[in-house]
Amino acid sequence: MKKLKKFLKYFFILLGLGLVLGYFSFYYFTKPKSDNQIISEFSELNIQPELAYEDFKGFSYRKIKITNGKNLPTMVFVHGTIGSSVDFIGYMSDSVLAKRANFISYDRVGYNYKDENETQESIAFERDLLQSITKDLEPKETIVVGYSYGGPIALADTNNYKKTILIAPAVYHKVEPQFWFINIYKWQLTRWLVPRVWKQAGKEKLSHVEDLQNFDDNWTANKNALLSIHGTADVIVPFSNSEYLEKQFPKNQFDLVKIPGGRHFLIWEDFDIIKEEFLKSLD
Questions:
Q1: I want to staple 66 with a disulfide (CB 3.0 to 4.6 A). Which of 103, 109, 220, 261 is the partner?
Q2: pLDDT one digit per residue (tens) for the chain, 283 residues
Q3: Rounded distance, CA 175 to CA 237, Å?
């Protein structure tokens, strides 16, 4: 009995330490980076990005632009929840892709460094923000890339682009999972434990199902060439989201790249596959 009590004591101590370590590790990797941190990360890769703050409907947001050539097409990246403008830094700093494209990435409202604005919980708002960013680009030389929650934002943008690429897009409200840990944000007693940027993600998560229903019958208004890249083992945004889209669009408009066993973090874990698809799309 004493051995069991001793085992349980150490077990719960280790479990507690593991949870605390996991909490702070996740926070460290998801918290928004300062301007100096972003510039430093790119500088280490011998890249000098243009970093600016833009205004949209009274909201300030941060935008990163990398110009590799005057006549190159532009890839515009839309991050997910939680996410930031540097989620696609691996692609924006890749020497092969750099010969083929210019890049723009931005922090959505509510996800900027020390952002005091609340997320707007609206795909329509996010779509309009995206269109304000692409309005000065040559449409047929523009590729919009939306990851996770950024997927429906990119898909809702019906401007006539060269291509729209969706990566693990959260577009189908009927298969949207509701995870237990969202309750930590919902409960008043535990909400104080949630860092501000996670609160923004929690707000979007809770309103996402209802917001998606506003677009259920409108996705096919997008007439661009579409590509969806999705992992079959994604439990955060199930693969059935892309299967749902595949049924909505004609085969000559929509392509689905299935990554067997791929998880939701595929933009990092399956870099080579996604990079190859980007290169094909730039042809």
A1: 103
A2: 666 565 555 555 654 555 445 444 444 455 678 889 989 998 898 999 999 999 999 999 999 999 999 999 999 999 998 889 999 999 999 999 999 999 999 999 988 777 777 778 899 999 999 999 999 999 999 999 999 999 999 999 999 999 999 999 999 999 887 655 555 555 566 554 556 656 666 667 767 789 999 998 899 999 999 999 999 999 999 999 999 999 999 999 999 999 999 999 999 999 999 999 999 999 9
A3: 8
Task: Map tokens 């989201």 to a residue.
Answer: 241
Tokens of 210: 């209802």
Q: Measured between alpha carbons, how far is 118 from 22 in angstroms, rounded to an integer?
A: 26
Task: Give the number of C-alpha atoms closer than 13 A to the C-alpha of residue 270, restricted to the C-beta side.
Answer: 23
Taking the C-alpha atoms of residue 169 and residue 189, their distance in angstroms, rounded to an integer, is 32
What one-character DSSP code corresponds to residue 256?
Answer: E
The angle subtended at Cα 96 by Cα 90 and Cα 101, nearest 5°, is: 85
What fold characterizes domain 33-282? Answer: Rossmann fold (3.40.50)
Our CA angle for 160, 55, 107, nearest 5°, is 75
Structure tokens at 173: 């409200």
Residue extents of the structural domains in the chain: 1-30, 33-282
| pTM, 2 dp | 0.87
Closest by CA position to 243, among listed 164, 175, 179, 150: 175
DSSP H or E run through 51: strand 50-56
Q: For residues 26 and 23, give the distance between their C-alpha atoms in angstroms, rounded to a whole number.
A: 5
- Residue 146 gets which letter from DSSP? E
